Amino acid sequence: MLESKIQTKIKKKLEADGWIVIKLIRTSKNGIPDLLAHRNGETIYIEVKQPTGELSPLQVEIIKQIRRQGIKVYIWTDYNKNFEL
User: Fold this and answer.
1) Which of 13, 63, 77, 78: CA 20 to 30 A from 84?
2) Does the pLDDT at position 10 exceed 70?
3) Phi/psi class of residue 18: alpha, beta or left (left: φ > 0; alpha: ψ in -120 to 50)?
4) Where are the beta strands (DSSP E) in 30-71?
5) HSE on the CB side for 52, CA within 13 Å?
Protein backbone atom coordinates (compact mmCIF):
# COMPACT_ATOMS: atom_id res chain seq x y z
CA MET A 1 0.00 0.00 0.00
CA LEU A 2 1.29 3.48 -0.83
CA GLU A 3 2.24 5.76 2.05
CA SER A 4 -0.41 8.24 0.93
CA LYS A 5 -3.09 5.54 1.32
CA ILE A 6 -1.74 4.58 4.75
CA GLN A 7 -1.77 8.28 5.75
CA THR A 8 -5.39 8.65 4.67
CA LYS A 9 -6.40 5.54 6.64
CA ILE A 10 -4.57 6.75 9.77
CA LYS A 11 -6.02 10.27 9.42
CA LYS A 12 -9.60 8.95 9.16
CA LYS A 13 -9.19 6.66 12.17
CA LEU A 14 -7.66 9.43 14.28
CA GLU A 15 -10.51 11.78 13.35
CA ALA A 16 -13.04 9.06 14.25
CA ASP A 17 -11.33 8.91 17.67
CA GLY A 18 -11.85 12.66 18.15
CA TRP A 19 -8.47 14.02 16.99
CA ILE A 20 -8.12 17.13 14.83
CA VAL A 21 -5.60 16.02 12.19
CA ILE A 22 -3.51 18.18 9.87
CA LYS A 23 -1.57 16.64 7.00
CA LEU A 24 1.69 18.54 6.72
CA ILE A 25 2.39 18.72 3.00
CA ARG A 26 4.94 21.49 2.67
CA THR A 27 6.52 23.24 5.59
CA SER A 28 9.38 25.66 6.00
CA LYS A 29 11.40 22.84 7.60
CA ASN A 30 12.33 19.63 5.83
CA GLY A 31 12.03 16.34 7.68
CA ILE A 32 8.85 17.24 9.60
CA PRO A 33 6.53 14.25 10.23
CA ASP A 34 3.53 13.73 7.95
CA LEU A 35 0.64 14.30 10.35
CA LEU A 36 -0.03 16.65 13.27
CA ALA A 37 -2.90 15.74 15.60
CA HIS A 38 -4.57 17.52 18.54
CA ARG A 39 -7.07 16.21 21.09
CA ASN A 40 -7.92 17.25 24.64
CA GLY A 41 -4.81 19.40 25.05
CA GLU A 42 -2.46 16.76 23.64
CA THR A 43 -0.43 17.20 20.46
CA ILE A 44 1.29 14.40 18.60
CA TYR A 45 3.20 14.06 15.35
CA ILE A 46 3.03 10.93 13.22
CA GLU A 47 5.53 9.94 10.55
CA VAL A 48 3.95 7.39 8.21
CA LYS A 49 6.09 4.71 6.60
CA GLN A 50 5.45 1.55 4.68
CA PRO A 51 6.33 -1.56 6.71
CA THR A 52 9.67 -1.77 4.89
CA GLY A 53 10.27 1.99 4.92
CA GLU A 54 13.17 3.69 6.65
CA LEU A 55 13.60 7.14 8.13
CA SER A 56 16.12 9.45 6.53
CA PRO A 57 18.91 10.82 8.77
CA LEU A 58 17.18 14.24 8.62
CA GLN A 59 13.87 12.73 9.74
CA VAL A 60 15.59 11.01 12.67
CA GLU A 61 17.17 14.31 13.76
CA ILE A 62 13.93 16.29 13.45
CA ILE A 63 12.01 13.64 15.42
CA LYS A 64 14.65 13.82 18.17
CA GLN A 65 14.38 17.63 18.24
CA ILE A 66 10.59 17.51 18.56
CA ARG A 67 10.77 14.89 21.31
CA ARG A 68 13.28 17.01 23.25
CA GLN A 69 10.52 19.64 23.39
CA GLY A 70 8.29 17.14 25.19
CA ILE A 71 6.04 16.40 22.21
CA LYS A 72 5.24 12.81 21.30
CA VAL A 73 6.27 11.60 17.85
CA TYR A 74 5.23 8.23 16.51
CA ILE A 75 6.39 6.35 13.44
CA TRP A 76 3.44 4.28 12.22
CA THR A 77 3.09 1.73 9.45
CA ASP A 78 -0.65 1.48 10.14
CA TYR A 79 -3.09 2.92 12.66
CA ASN A 80 -1.48 2.61 16.09
CA LYS A 81 1.35 0.36 14.81
CA ASN A 82 4.40 2.12 16.15
CA PHE A 83 8.07 1.41 15.70
CA GLU A 84 10.93 3.18 17.40
CA LEU A 85 14.03 4.84 16.02
Assistant:
1) 13
2) yes
3) left
4) 35-39, 42-48
5) 2
